[in-house]
Amino acid sequence: MKEIIIAMMMWIHTATGYSIPEIPDINYLNTMELRSYAYGCELTPIPTHNIELCAAKKDWDLDRTNPIALYDDKNKTIIVNKKFDIETIHDKSVLFHELVHHMQFENDIDSNVECIGDLEKEAYTLQDEWLQEKYSVSVWDTIKMNRLFFMMITSCNDY
User: Is residue 59 part of a domain?
Assistant: First the structure.
């Protein structure tokens, strides 16, 4: 997988001019562990913006793998679901997206944006360009994301 990561980081460098940092660590968690990690449900206190989500935790569908990955900028680690399969275009594109975040944080881009939505917008846009170039498919079709979700996750809100 190291070769794939290096190739992706070189592509991101070419598209953005970001310097290429050290390869991030990759950690694997099961679905529930990943959700708890992503949403802070195991923290005391639970993050305010996640209280309702965490209250619904008992109803989570264990067969779903979302989120399949996330980037932990404090530990410079990409965390993926144990079901992650680098052989699929879907999961390669998810890894690519998280590598964009790794490079954004390592290049201190996060300190120059209005909100995290700006980082997401760039990551999804680059992911789409990479998918179009490598596989002639869109991010919309590959990860089954609709444009309304894209608008919501890339907007800047005061919450």
Answer: yes
- pTM, two decimal places: 0.82
Answer whether residue 158 is part of any domain.
no
Question: How far is the C-alpha of 87 from the C-alpha of 25, rounded, in Å?
Answer: 19
Domains contained in the chain, number? 1
Rounded CA separation 136/32 (Å): 33
Domain range for 75 = 2-153
Cα–Cα dist 26/101, whole Å: 14
CA distance 25 to 79: 8
CA distances from 118 to 51, 141, 153 (A): 25, 22, 9
pLDDT digits (tens, 9 = 90+) for 34-63: 777 776 666 555 555 555 656 655 554 444
Q: What is the pLDDT of residues 79-89, one digit of tens each?
A: 999 989 999 99
CA distance 155 to 118: 7
Span 97-131, pLDDT tens digits: 999 999 999 999 988 888 888 999 999 999 999 99
Distance in angstroms (rounded) separating the CA atoms of residues 31 and 130? 27
Residue 148 included in any domain: yes
